[in-house]
């Protein structure tokens, strides 16, 4: 799957367009058409490329962080009623009753707007990308007439999309066809033709009819342009389950904290098998949603649209044992499968002891929704300070040097080496937070191998039976500049129960 990223830069860090933020994809579509229209009518190739663009799913948007002037600037102007004062300049104050409030968005002009459209077919991408690049070169404004801008395009592979978004210093807005969020207008089939109809009708909006010696002016409102509304950054839905004893109804079964990886893998694989037995025709979509890859093993599904299985250790009290008794299943709004089907797939799943092949726990829907507040979920406000409950898996660049136990004294690390390891881990944490969708500034980071609570576990205990090297595991505490909501999981193991963080007051 290929993608086309359209970058837009404004000459000044001001945007005067009315309505929503960020600027909707529909505004960019209109700007592309307007820029091409300066040199005359659109060519058949340009029309075909724009029609291909309007048939694509809604794009991902990256926008600079912006703020608005508190009250704006108020302007008074004549209300087009000069006939009442017979055009007398000295009396214009009497009709200066029209009010316009200018309240632009302010942002860093060095940060570009980015709109990423995904193409399903490479042949379609090859045909349209070059022409769309030509249209972007002719873009001259974005928003209102005073918002002068320029644009360019870049062709991206699927693996490059997340890297581009992770490195963007602004905010990321992802579309969700099903859900509630920021409603943005997006081009749809017929948008280009509706713009052309509106343009022709605008030149004919006034008509004159004579009745004897009098002439009557008739005004016709040009037809509205055609677009559709798409929710962006819609919150995910989630379902809470409890690990209960198979024989004793209502009795919760504690699962060891350090075995969180095995718990997620068993639940995930069992849910996949149940769904495939029920709807074998959707086996590929099931693998994409729960595994994040195609049946052939290739990665082709955006991480933000995958279902997350999040075991929740018991926390909230100094004497809580931190064993796992509840599991949260988080379903993104853009998921390929229905939330009801995913809930059914996990409800009633059994976990077996590999030695005795007997069921040791059953997954049962839970009604203790208040428990998730310990992890910053369903809270009216977010949190700025977060600490890991299960250690996060950082990249190889943050790997600690291994020391042979027999050569501990000869190969002991110096203070300088330990400090360098922690600095590399801190830099990796910044990237991990961005991949997890946390894009605000960071005031402080602390990394260590020991848990932050007395009932926790050292990082080495979580590596057994996993595909992760224990030297890549770190317990992490971060202080953010802005509050964020949970659940918050970071690192390479965030889809396997590792890197789970809990907020601190």
Nearest-integer average pLDDT: 85
Total strand segments: 26
The CATH architecture classification of the largest domain is 2-Layer Sandwich
Q: What percent of residues are in strands?
A: 25-35%
Approximate shape: elongated
State the share of residues found in helices, binned by percent: 10-25%
Radius of gyration: 29 Å
Question: CATH fold name of the largest domain, please?
Answer: Alpha-Beta Plaits
Number of domains: 4
Q: Low-confidence parts, pLDDT < 50 over ≥5 residues?
A: none
Number of helices: 10
Profile the largest sheet.
6 strands, antiparallel
CATH class category label of the largest domain: Alpha Beta
Distance between the termini: 44 Å
Overall structural class, as computed from helix and strand content, comes to: alpha+beta
């Amino acid at each position: 799957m290929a993608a086309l990223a359209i970058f837009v830069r404004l000459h000044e860090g001001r945007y005067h367009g009315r309505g929503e933020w960020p600027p909707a994809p529909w505004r960019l579509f209109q700007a592309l058409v307007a820029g091409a229209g300066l040199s005359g009518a659109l060519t058949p190739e340009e029309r075909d490329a724009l029609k291909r663009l309007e048939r694509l799913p809604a794009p991902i948007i990256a926008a600079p962080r912006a703020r608005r002037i508190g009250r704006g600037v108020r302007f008074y102007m004549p209300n087009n009623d000069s006939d009442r004062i017979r055009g007398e300049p000295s009396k214009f104050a009497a009709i200066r009753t029209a009010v316009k409030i200018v309240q632009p968005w302010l942002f860093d002009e060095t940060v570009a707007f980015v709109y990423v459209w995904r193409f399903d077919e490479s042949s379609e991408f090859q045909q349209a990308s070059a022409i769309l690049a030509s249209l972007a070169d002719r873009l001259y404004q974005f928003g209102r007439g005073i918002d002068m801008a320029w644009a360019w395009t870049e062709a991206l592979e699927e693996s490059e999309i997340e890297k581009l978004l992770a490195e963007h210093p602004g905010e990321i807005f992802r579309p969700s066809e099903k859900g509630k969020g920021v409603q943005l207008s997006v081009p749809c089939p017929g948008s280009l033709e509706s713009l052309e109809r509106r343009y022709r009708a605008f030149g004919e909006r006034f008509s004159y009819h004579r009745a004897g010696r009098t002439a009557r002016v008739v005004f016709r409102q040009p037809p509205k342009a055609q677009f559709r509304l798409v929710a962006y950054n819609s919150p995910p839905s989630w379902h809470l389950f409890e690990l209960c004893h198979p024989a004793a109804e209502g009795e919760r079964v504690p699962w060891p904290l350090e075995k969180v990886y095995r718990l997620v893998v068993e639940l995930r694989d069992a849910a996949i098998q149940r769904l495939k037995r029920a709807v074998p025709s959707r086996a590929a979509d099931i693998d994409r949603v729960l595994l994040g890859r195609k049946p052939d093993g290739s990665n082709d599904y955006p991480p933000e649209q995958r279902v997350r299985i999040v075991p929740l250790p018991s926390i909230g009290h100094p004497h809580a044992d931190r064993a796992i008794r509840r599991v949260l299943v988080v379903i993104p709004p853009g998921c390929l499968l229905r939330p009801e089907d995913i809930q059914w797939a996990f409800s009633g799943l059994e976990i077996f002891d590999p030695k005795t092949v007997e069921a040791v726990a059953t997954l049962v829907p839970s009604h203790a929704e208040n428990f998730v507040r310990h992890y910053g979920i369903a809270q009216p406000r977010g949190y700025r300070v977060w600490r890991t409950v299960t250690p996060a898996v950082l990249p190889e660049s943050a790997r600690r040097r291994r020391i042979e136990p027999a050569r501990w004294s000869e190969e002991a690390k110096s203070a300088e080496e330990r400090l360098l390891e922690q600095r590399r881990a801190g830099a990796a944490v910044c990237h991990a937070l961005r991949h997890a969708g946390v894009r605000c500034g960071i005031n402080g980071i602390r990394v260590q191998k020991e848990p932050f609570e007395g009932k926790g576990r050292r990082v080495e205990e979580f590596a057994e039976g996993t595909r992760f090297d224990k030297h890549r595991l770190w317990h992490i505490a971060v202080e953010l500049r802005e509050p964020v909501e949970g659940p918050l999981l970071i690192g390479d193991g965030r889809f396997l129960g590792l890197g789970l963080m809990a907020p601190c007051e």
